[in-house]
Amino acid sequence: MNTKKSLGAMLGTAFLGVATSVQAQTPNFKVIPEFPKERDTIQFIYDARKTALKDAQSINGTLTGYQDFRWVQDVLKFTKTDSLWTARYIVPEKMSLVNFVFQADTLQDLGGDQTYSYLISGKEGKQVSGGMIGWGMLRTPEIVPGTPYVVDKSAYKTDEILVMWAKYELQGHPENRFKVLYPAANALKHMNTAESLAKLQNELNALQTIPNLKEEDMMEVFRVYKDVLKDTAKADELEQKIRTQYPQGQYVKDQQRLADFNLIQKAKTDDERLKAATDFIDKYPYKESEVAFNEKHRISYVTTYWIISVYTSMKKDLPNYTKYISKIAPYEALSNVIYRSLDVPYLSQKSMGPAEILPYARVVMDRLNYYKDNFQGDKYATLYYSNAPLFAKILVDNKMYDEAFVYASAAQSTERYQRAELNDTYVRILEGQGKTKELQMALEKSYSLNQSSAYMLELMKTSYVKRNKGEKGYTNYLAGLKDADNSVALKDKVSKLLISKDIPDFELLDQYGKKVKLSDQKGKIVVLDFWASWCAPCKGAFPGMKIAQENFAKDPNVVFYFVNTQEKQADMTTYVTNYMKENNYPFKVLLDKGSLVSKTLNVSAIPHKMIVGPNGKLRFSEVGYMGSTSELADEITEMVNTLKAGK
């Protein structure tokens, strides 16, 4: 038998009349150079003016690539120059096809029936191996399992067209006979005619007669019998043959890898789970070539690494934490590791202090910087920038101001003073570095955007008093810093939050044993802040609530009550009294024992703030705290003033 005979030859020539080029430039999308090759630095140009994204302020492009017969994805940030959006990209080796979906907020542009797809050229202008079959699958995602749905439905083609592109692939790359087998088999099975099924069976029979078949080729035949034809008997026969001929081959290794991963899931204790996870990584370092099998069988390196990071950090086992996390792969596993082994113990649980968390953070920072510096694609930079505030805080809390400045500056380059927590870290760094001028600018910029922490507000006042030898004019100074647009936006936000609902009456004791009944407050504006001792955001909001309360300290018709609820401590009267005194909070706290009132008022997540109007109706109800002392104070103040104005 002629082993060079291609699948295309067996499938006939009925579709030869269709053009094979995907390179035609569209009005909205261009690539420079027009015929890109592997390793080229290319420029993608997107013209959104005649698309649904014409008014977008920022645009991302999700790049779906077909690389070495595997689908990969990346997200590129596009930059606007004049009327066009552009992004640069280095074409990886074996990347044969790229496709874009452009997105701005919830709007998408998939390119319609033309798509935003491009085939990559190889040596002598020949398409890179895999490009033709990838192009065929891209437009028949419902036929070949695992194909991403990233082109518009108007670009979808038939099973016959997929067979045609399989043939084109083999005309350019006859060596890919086994690699196009699975998509071609799906197309022939989808046709489901006597002729198409006979062609498929003939091809399978012919392939199995080729002498000295490689394991990977036998696996493709096995895959068709098992997943496409659902021929269990033939699949079992081939599986046994593969195991016998290749006892140390990839199939046997894959099955053993799956069995060893399942040991992690079956572990009954933390120690057993940690050992199973480290044994798994020791035995099976992450390989890109195994991703398809891992995804199909739910083998998760992300899960394995977070187990290792959490348990080793809990055990204070820095050597093993370093051993595994310093080489972590894939890149996506870092996100869970950062959150579970750094963010949670340091910011949420506060179970590790600055000096204790620092060496663990350094391991992660080094690995994150490795990826950022050595790999292209916005996804690598995104994780770096999104976690830079955490690293900056850890470093500044260790008084490492110069190093912290690098991370805080990187974070500010994307946040632009829009996050109070980051601003707090940033000004502490500038203060530690003795950069007085930059510190003043950062304080004023943050305040103008209403993103200041309590510490920053104190620092602003101290600085003002020092510069002006007193507090005179301070209120006008602050008012002059306020951004007018932000003030308008706040009024608009508050007006949209205004409601009018009945609220059940309740009666509670305050921390001094005095009864407080809601219905007795009729005629007053009542601000209720539901909180608990274990809730960090609740207590984090107190400085802002203190400012808001002080704004109405001389108004007897505005009262604030801080409802302690969902509590876990036993003696809350003593705790509340001491906590308020130690932190200088002049709050009247109502003790909601058993959380009866919060349940009656449907309060679940906390902090939760409610404002009751003079008529006894619930007028505002807001959950959460975003971290800005000044913003919260202004929002509560605006809400109260709105009700005072008779709204």
Summarize this structure briefly.
The chain is built from 26 helices and 15 strands.
Overall body shape: elongated
**How much of the residues is beta strand, in percent?**
5-15%
Low-confidence stretches: 1-21
CA-based gyration radius:
32 Å
N-to-C span: 89 Å
Secondary-structure content class? alpha+beta
Mean pLDDT: 91
Put simply, the count of helices is 26
Descriptive terms for the model:
about 650 residues, alpha+beta, 8-stranded antiparallel sheet
List the helices and strands and how they pair.
Layout: H1 7-11, E1 29-32, E2 41-46, E3 59-67, E4 70-81, E5 84-90, E6 95-104, E7 107-109, E8 117-119, H2 131-138, H3 159-172, H4 181-191, H5 194-208, H6 215-228, H7 232-245, H8 250-266, H9 270-283, H10 291-296, H11 301-314, H12 318-325, H13 333-348, H14 354-374, H15 378-397, H16 401-415, H17 420-433, H18 436-448, H19 454-468, H20 474-481, H21 484-497, E9 507-510, E10 515-517, E11 525-531, H22 536-540, H23 542-551, E12 558-564, H24 572-582, E13 589-591, H25 596-600, E14 608-612, E15 618-623, H26 629-644
Parallel strand pairs: 11-12, 12-13
Antiparallel strand pairs: 1-2, 2-5, 3-4, 3-6, 4-5, 6-7, 6-8, 9-10, 9-13, 11-14, 14-15
